[in-house]
Amino acid sequence: MADSPVAATLIDTVAWVHIEHGRILCGRPRGKDVFFIPGGKREGAESDLQTLLREIREELTIELLPETVAPAGCYEAYAHGSQGGPLVRMACYTAEYRGILAPSSEIEELTWFGYTDRELVPPVDQLLFDDLHEAGHLR
Fold it and tell me: Are 82 and 9 within 8 A, CB to CB?
């Protein structure tokens, strides 16, 4: 019997959806060949908000303004390069920030993607790209 999404290991993540001029901010971690929406995995009993604030500070050297954080959807898909597991759950949020966007030591490259760049991100990010494009937010 094939693995079902329910039976797969779950990777619980949060992501910051930041769009400017119809393009979404994505980053490529050092040593990886794929770009991701900025964010990452929860540590211990962190809330979504705590995880989001920590991950974005670590990855992009900026501070999200907690009072502006708003839900932007939740997506599930198999992890990049896997066939049947693990399953990634990505809770997405928008927020305003202060500081200057810059890649940290763990991020090799930052870039702005439009919808035509969809194939350069993992399956769970592609679901977000689809929704943003359908809503007219992503060119």
Answer: no
